[in-house]
Amino acid sequence: MTKRIVVTGGAGYIGSHVCVELLSRGAALLVIDNLANSHPEAINRISELAPGDIRLIERDLANPAHKDDIVSAVREFHPDGAIHLAGLKAVGESVAEPAMYYRINLGATLTLVEALEAANARSLVFSSSATVYGDENANPVSETGRTAPANPYGRTKLFIEEMLKDIARADSRWRTVNLRYFNPVGAHPSGRIGEDPNGIPNNLFPFIAQVAVCKRKTLSVFGDDYPTRDGTGVRDYIHVCDLARGHAAALDYLDKQTTGCALDVNLGTGTGYSVLEAIAAFKRASNRDIPFSIAPRREGDVAEIYADADRAKKLFDWRADKSLEAMCADHWRWQSQNPDGYKS
Ligand code: NAD
Ligand code: UD1
After folding, report:
1. Does pLDDT of 108 surpass 80?
2. Ligand nearest to the CA of 61
């Protein structure tokens, strides 16, 4: 792969792993990130892990005053395509501030699309989410499953997916893929990059990791009365490095297409684990106690969801291969070596 790729949100959790994967394949990268939920040290660590051609421009894709700069930078970079990870992702915040979520997530995407048009580069991989499925489908959930997101965050993802399909329909030079991630966890095996959440983590793995490192006393398990094997919620956790490889595979796929396309593709392992199974695995990996108590169900949670991962295998020749043990060991290495994230 010798390519020039724009990576929006490249300083973030998933984006930093995507950057390492692409640089290690010889790509040149232009990262656009306003560092609203990330740290500039992430870019230094990416360069340390995969020395190569990477440049950060610190701009807000949703701010109209930054648009001209972004369009010029993208045009001057002469990209072959883009991976679009930038956006807001906190479900609770999206319920409280829906207008902000629509403005930023949809606005940022439109700016990127316009910048790519101006640069004559019409390949785009978008970070969507399994959250677009809601809770109406039988498992494993395939891409033809019904979409019914339960909150504004999920609806921004679905609306962006639809927007990209309309754009590809109108102009057959566009090739787009909506990657529907299941539950990304873990960190680069070096322990140098990983998830660095601000404040109290909403998601299970960062919370468990902070309990293991004694930053928090106890984990609340949201519900033990679901119709699952042990009563707790079941999810398809996927190692963030497998996920990053999935992005490179999606770009390779788009590269080979001779006509326009607009696809939805799940990135998951196809296997679900319960909250109690995840806690037990993390305990083994960290050799630390993880005190927890059972709390009421969290609003908006589904009982069980895991991916049908066949389409990614068929189209991209990609599948996730890291185990839950590897996810926990790598997540723990990052957390224990960087107890305060990049500020450590
Ligand atoms: P993250 O917050 O770590 O990364 C997002 C990056 O985008 C951050 O570096 C942030 O500073 C940047 N950003 C946000 N708004 C921006 C703007 N207006 N202009 C420029 N940069 C901006 O999140 P992540 O976990 O790495 O997620 C990346 C993408 O994947 C997001 O779109 C998220 O919705 C999606 N996703 C994440 C998960 C997950 O569990 N982490 C699951 C499904 C989908
Ligand atoms: C959540 C979001 C989803 C988003 C995804 C990635 C909700 C309802 N869903 O997915 O939209 O795409 O994060 O950002 O917020 N759990 C606990 N205790 C905790 C945290 C979680 O028991 O402190 C449980 C949950 O009930 C769930 C499982 O752990 O059963 C995984 O939760 P989480 O990591 O938040 O992911 P999702 O709920 O799948």
Report:
1. yes
2. 1
Mean pLDDT of 294-314: 96
In a domain? residue 286? no
Total number of domains constituting the chain: 1
In-domain check, residue 278: no
153: annotated active-site residue: yes
Q: CA 309, 313, 315, 316 torsion: positive or negative?
A: positive
Question: Quick one: pLDDT at residue 300?
Answer: 87
Question: Domain holding 53: CATH number?
Answer: 3.40.50.720
The tokens 């973030």 sit on which residue?
12
> What is the pTM for the complete model shown?
0.98
Q: Which residue has the higher pLDDT, 197 or 64?
A: 64
Identified catalytic residue from 153, 181, 306, 342: 153
Lining ligand 2 with CB less than 6 A are: 89, 91, 129, 131, 153-154, 183, 202-204, 207, 219-222, 233, 235, 275, 298, 300-301
Task: Please choose, from the candidates 63, 108, 117, 110, the residue with its C-alpha nearest in 3D space to the C-alpha of residue 89.
Answer: 108
Q: Where residue 198 falls among pLDDT bands split at 50, 70, 90?
A: confident
Residue 130 belongs to domain spanning: 4-187+237-269+306-321
